[in-house]
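Could you join me in thinking about how sequence relates to backbone shape in a protein? Label the sequence line and the structure token line clearly, so we can match residues to local backbone shapes. Once you have written the record down, we can walk along the chain together.
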Amino acid sequence: MERKATEKQRFYGAITVSDRGQIVIPADARRDFNIKVGDKLLVLGDLEQGLALVQVSTLLEKHPGMLGLLQSIQGSEGKNE
């Protein structure tokens, strides 16, 4: 069964991970999602589905209750080092 993209879905191309583990977000994607220098992005993962990037500001605007969860995750990261 073939699935068609909606007006809100885009394909921005393929990217390559550098030897330092860095990626470049395509300019069209940065423009469409208003991603600016210094913006914070979350990297979410599902071992079966893959990775997703989410702007922290967007997540908090749509789900203000996530602030406590993000703070607890940030606090627990320091304990694992």
Observations:
- The chain has a mean pLDDT of 85.
- The two ends are 46 Å apart (CA to CA).
